[in-house]
Specification:
Largest sheet: none
Radius of gyration: 18 Å
Shape: globular
Structural class: mainly alpha
Number of strands: 0
Number of helices: 9
Strand content: under 5%
């Protein structure tokens, strides 16, 4: 099966996810700068989630460039990832509307954790499809960031009930870790 339909569908779903998130940013009814103050938590949660969605989109793009075709198992693994990504707007909205209180912060971390697991599953399905000696398998390698991220999300979930600022900082730190360009997939694309 051709990979381009999967890529186009995934890009479309991710674009819709971002659109849904931006629609949560309601225009204030006043014209003063102070009228924006209540929107600050919503805007900050939007920025963080936009960065996460962007990271997944970017890495998904690079990941799919290491393969030439997809299987049914890959399609389902990709849908699994898109399902969890599609919950980010809900978790983002709840977190922002409730000013980063404990339960919304924990739910946000849970959604991020499930996205990370879904990403690992998609990678694993692609490695099985391509073979253990493929350029993709070598690119995935030890995947240090992929192994550390779930620990960050679990720490963020637990700290949400102890110290919300710490939880927020953990989620931001995890995102910052992924913003550092990862050249593994680009190298694999050039090697294949």
């Amino acid at each position: 099966m051709d990979k381009h339909r999967l890529e186009a569908f995934s890009d479309g779903v991710i674009a819709i996810i971002i659109t849904i998130m931006v629609l949560e940013l309601k225009v204030p009814h006043g014209s003063e700068l102070s009228d924006l103050r209540p929107l600050v938590p919503i805007f900050l949660s939007y920025v963080l989630s936009f960065v996460y969605i962007g990271i997944y989109w970017n890495n998904h793009h690079h990941l799919l460039h290491t393969i030439s075709h997809v299987t049914g198992g890959v399609l389902w693994a990709n849908l699994h990832l898109l399902f969890w990504l599609s919950l980010i707007p809900f978790a983002t909205g709840w977190m922002g509307e409730n000013h980063f209180s404990s339960m919304p912060l924990a739910l946000y971390g849970f959604v991020l954790l499930m996205c990370a697991f879904a990403w690992k599953l998609l990678q694993a399905r692609l490695v099985v499809m391509q073979g253990r000696e493929s350029a993709l398998a070598h690119a995935v390698g030890r995947d240090l960031k992929g192994r550390i991220s779930p620990a960050f999300y679990v720490a963020g979930i637990l700290s949400a009930f102890l110290n919300g600022y710490l939880s927020e900082a953990i989620y931001v730190l995890a995102a910052l870790m992924w913003l550092v360009p990862d050249r593994r997939f680009e190298k694999a694309t050039h090697a294949s």
